[in-house]
Design brief:
By secondary structure, the chain is mostly helical. The protein has 21 helices and three strands. The chain is 64% helix and 3% strand. The chain has a three-stranded mixed sheet. The radius of gyration is 23 Å and the shape is globular. The structure holds zinc ion. Zinc ion binds at residues 269, 273, 300, 303.
Length: 506
């Protein structure tokens, strides 16, 4: 310890180490999903488990708690809004990390890896009964976890889990946003279903060699503002973004020769996540909450905004189609901007969430949120999950579920105990629609800029309003600051109807 070091300096040194260790953990995870040879799997698990143990020890170190206490007692820090916000978030993280006993942490992690294996087999064999005991165990362990964490005043156990992904949001607040959205979307979808307009899949199903798609995707990501000197685009089974640290934010996508629009959507989605990571002040505050994302919902708003509001707009295709023709060549030559615009905005209810369009996607999410909440409240027995799932698919999307593989076994989340994660997808869509309305008000000629391939003004607007703040403001407040409005479902509905009514001539 040098003489002039303040408690806040010492805290920063510890946070930098925690941040570095967690970047190492993320790098091991990135490599596992992209490059690692198959036989390295079991040693990788050992490496990951060691790093995660070291991280847990550091995050729960009583010395860290003491330092926090010292900083909290320092009037100079209390008077500095940034540092005070930083301490508020650190206290929250430290509290959450230390309230769960280490044997429960170990049991949760062991159960998750075994339950995920059981889920994979159950999904492949279409055998819900073999997954059921694991689902029951995950719910019971996560109830214990919620009890240790403690629900907010007047809240319920599920809130303590949701808090992990969307700080400050409760189940009843989420339901109040979702219920009217579900009703409005369901009735809008039945209008679309009755429209005589049917669109040729066209561009969505054009056959384009993967190498050409790779080049096209890379060019688009770069043009949106993704810094490839501080990142890279690779292939993985499930696309993801990994913000590894200062100067290193990597994304992945996946390609199919007959689905070029899906690859582009997933690249633009991950690019949106990556632009957020690259815009966080990680250099300045390594390991500090102020250099981390505000919430999963805010993170998802950044990916959705670039994927949907930008990537499925007509101005975007005015710029992108000539580039697509140049790089993808003959397979896309015959399409007009209008053809592509209609094709990437087709509304077709599907059984699988990740294959769903913008309008039906949120119905998938709200169904999962309601069912997991019902299981946590004890209103739905996990045994009855398949029947409840199938009922809701019929009611909300008008689809008959032929088997559990394409029903309640399709997602990984519950197998790894990620209860409270699903709602953040729809929250992300709500935030994105709200930000989009505000951006259109505040950025002159946004459509024309996008049609020229000029995305910098939108990115700068997001950088200043969202990225630069890290976790300084809770998600809801961040949304209010940038849009001037409370979170609501109306902007998303206005956006979807504004686009889809003309397309379906409603
Ligand atoms: Zn995402």
């Amino acid at each position: 310890m040098t003489k002039n070091e303040t408690p806040y300096d010492r805290l920063s040194t510890r946070l930098r180490e925690i941040g570095t260790l967690s970047a190492i953990e993320a790098l091991l995870g990135w490599d596992q999903e992209t490059m690692m040879p198959p036989k390295a799997g079991s040693f990788r698990a050992e490496e990951l488990s060691l790093v995660s143990r070291l991280l847990h020890d550091r995050r729960t170190d009583p010395a860290l708690g003491e330092l926090l206490g010292e900083c909290e007692g320092d009037p100079a820090i209390a008077g500095d809004a940034c540092r005070a916000a930083d301490l508020r978030e650190l206290r929250r993280d430290y509290g959450r990390a230390t309230r769960i006993p280490s044997d429960l942490v170990a049991e949760l992690s062991e159960t998750s890896s075994r339950a995920m294996q059981a889920w994979k087999n159950a999904r492949q064999e279409n055998d819900f009964s073999s997954f059921l005991p694991w689902l029951e165990k995950q719910i019971s362990l996560n109830r214990d976890k919620a009890e240790c964490l403690g629900a907010p005043e007047g809240g319920e156990p599920y809130d303590a889990l949701l808090e992990e992904y969307e700080p400050g949001m409760t189940a009843s607040e989420a339901a109040a946003l979702f219920d009217p959205l579900r009703e409005a979307l369901s009735s809008f979808l039945s209008e679309i279903a009755e429209s005589p307009v049917r669109h040729d899949p066209g561009f969505v199903e054009a056959k384009v060699p993967v190498e050409a798609q790779q080049e096209f995707n890379l060019q688009v990501a770069k043009r949106l503002g993704y810094d490839l000197e501080a990142g890279r685009l690779d292939v993985s089974v499930h696309p993801f973004t990994e913000g590894l640290g200062p100067g290193d934010t990597r994304i992945t996508t996946r390609y199919r020769e007959d689905r070029p629009a899906d690859a582009l959507a997933s690249t633009m989605h991950e690019t949106g996540h990556a632009l957020y990571e690259q815009g966080l002040p990680k250099d300045r505050l390594p390991g500090h909450p102020l250099s981390q994302a505000a919430s999963m919902g805010i993170h998802e708003s950044q990916s959705r905004l670039w994927e949907n509001q930008v990537g499925r707009s007509r101005p975007f295709w005015e710029w992108a189609l000539p580039l697509a023709r140049e790089i993808l060549g003959a397979p896309v030559e015959s399409y007009s901007v209008d053809d592509v615009y209609r094709s990437v905005n087709a509304v077709i209810p599907k059984l699988i969430r990740v294959e769903s369009d913008e309008a039906t996607y949120n119905l998938h999410i709200m169904l999962r949120f309601d069912l997991e909440l019902a299981m946590f409240r004890g209103d739905l027995s996990p045994r009855d999950l398949p029947a409840a799932w199938n009922d809701r698919m019929k009611r909300d999307l008008g689809l008959r579920v032929p088997d559990d593989r394409r029903g309640c076994l399709q997602d990984i989340h519950w197998s790894v105990g990620a209860f409270g994660y699903f709602p953040t997808y729809t929250l992300g869509n709500l935030y994105a629609a709200q930000m989009w309305e505000a951006a259109r008000r505040e950025i002159l000629d946004l459509d024309r800029r996008i049609a020229c391939g000029e995305f910098g003004s939108l990115l700068e607007w997001l950088r200043a309003g969202v990225h630069a703040h890290g976790r300084r403001y809770p998600a809801g407040e961040l949304g209010r600051r940038i849009t001037g409005a409370e979170p609501g479902y109306e902007p998303l509905l206005r956006y979807l109807e504004g686009k889809l009514r003309p397309i379906y001539r409603l």
